[in-house]
Amino acid sequence: MNSKVTKYDVVVSGGGIAGISCAYTCSSSNLKTLLVEKESFLGGDVTGGLVIPVMKTETKNLNTDFYRTLVDYAKKYNSQFTYSDNNEGWFNPIMLKIIFERMLKNVHCDILLESKISDVITDENIIKSAYVNTNTLSLPIVSNYYVDATGDASLAKLLKCEFWNDNNKRQPASIRFLVSGVNLDLFADFLESIDNDKNVTTTNRVDGIIHLSTAFTWDKSKNWALLPYFTRAVADKVLQEEDLAYFQLFTVAGMHSTVALNCPRLRDYNPNDPYDYSNALIEAREAIYRLHNFLVCYIPGFKKSYISNIASKIGQRETSRVKCKYDYTIKDIISKKSFNNPALHSNYPVDIHSNQKDKSVLMHVQDYTLPIESLMSKNYKNLYIVGKILGCDFKSQAALRVQSSCMSMGEAVGKDIFKNLIIK
């Protein structure tokens, strides 16, 4: 054990998009900041989970400085594309591993990879100090503020914080993958010939580069243009019936023959049974093989394609949610409730996935905001919560969990910490 105690203004636990945004904002304000990440890379769901692109929403430029900076950085590395709907959030998830590190190093943020907070010392409702287990030793640290951006609320659990318990069933997780060697000219021509529903399928041709997106589900909410192809593949035993549950595909910035697939979903599994969870993961990777075979056999442009990457972590849409100073609910979204200290602005819909046919929900809503108090721990004065584990109910989290909102949460918390330290 290293006996030397390192002192910080802010320690951020979790190097996903919310944690990076928070750490970057704090370091940019000259706060001594440490970012602790359990993986060997930064980015969380964005990089390890291949969760791209950033879904478009109306932010009203509230706490979007980090996002703007990220777009500018990614452009320099040919790792960003602005889609025809003016969504600037089409990124290259592989290059973002490098970009995130460079952004943080440029503002002198300390980073510990393959590390996690293993113990905390508290005094009533104040976190006094913590220990960080690295891949070589345990480091004692002291900080004025701590931020849980872990995605699974591991720091809040270590602190025995209160949690929401308002849903009987979680949204299914997905495991994404990349397919390369795609003839995008052929594929785009095919999509344009079969689907004119711009809410489902779009193609974007700029300076000889093609970007596109399309989707299909087994829900009957739309007349899916890809339905005959999936139906035939099931009849031919190339796909299984459950493979039709959810299919979504996007091109990737800077990877001109590659598409990213937001599927398959993991089947429902017992979260208390590690064997069942492991088998669900194995079955999902088998589904990836079937889905790629389907593309090769039935969809123009994929004849010479190959699976080039499978996400190293699953995309959990919803995990534990921490109780915070303000209990944010779906009523706040529907009523468009205003707050004195809004952390973000959005109009992203309530998006609840389900493994049952016609049970998914996509409820469009008008503009809403989230108060900073829903990012402040109810149990500890110097603990903030950012990302999909924020202090809200199940339905509102289904709207707030998207990357643009998570970046704004991290930035809002960083600014609030800076304000508190300056006042002190």
Architecture overview:
It is a single chain. The chain has 424 residues and is α+β, with helices and mostly antiparallel strands. The protein is built from ten helices and 19 strands. The strands form five sheets. Strands 1, 2, 5, 6, 7, 8 and 19 form a seven-stranded mixed beta sheet that branches. Helix 1 runs parallel beside helix 10 (403-423). The longest helix has 25 residues, at 274-298. The radius of gyration is 22 Å and the shape is globular.
Count of helical regions: 10
Number of strands: 19
Distance between the termini: 33 Å
Rg computed from alpha carbons, rounded to a whole number of angstroms: 22 Å
Instruction: Determine the fraction of residues in helical runs and give it as a percent range.
Output: 25-40%
Q: Report the principal-axis shape.
A: globular
* Largest sheet features: 7 strands, mixed
Taken in chain order, the helices and strands follow as EHEHEEHEEEEHEHEEHEEHEHEEEEEHH
Amount of beta strand: 15-25%
Structural class call reads: alpha+beta
The low-confidence parts are none
Average pLDDT, to the nearest integer?
A: 96
Task: Give the helix/strand layout.
Blueprint: E1 6-13, H1 17-28, E2 33-36, H2 65-76, E3 80-81, E4 90-91, H3 93-106, E5 110-112, E6 116-123, E7 126-133, E8 138-148, H4 154-158, E9 177-180, H5 184-194, E10 202-206, E11 209-217, H6 227-235, E12 246-252, E13 255-261, H7 274-298, E14 306-310, H8 330-334, E15 342-346, E16 350-352, E17 361-363, E18 368-371, E19 383-385, H9 394-400, H10 403-423
Parallel strand pairs: 1-2, 1-8, 2-5, 8-19
Antiparallel strand pairs: 3-4, 6-7, 7-8, 9-13, 9-14, 10-11, 11-12, 12-13, 15-18, 16-17
Helix pairs in contact: 1-10
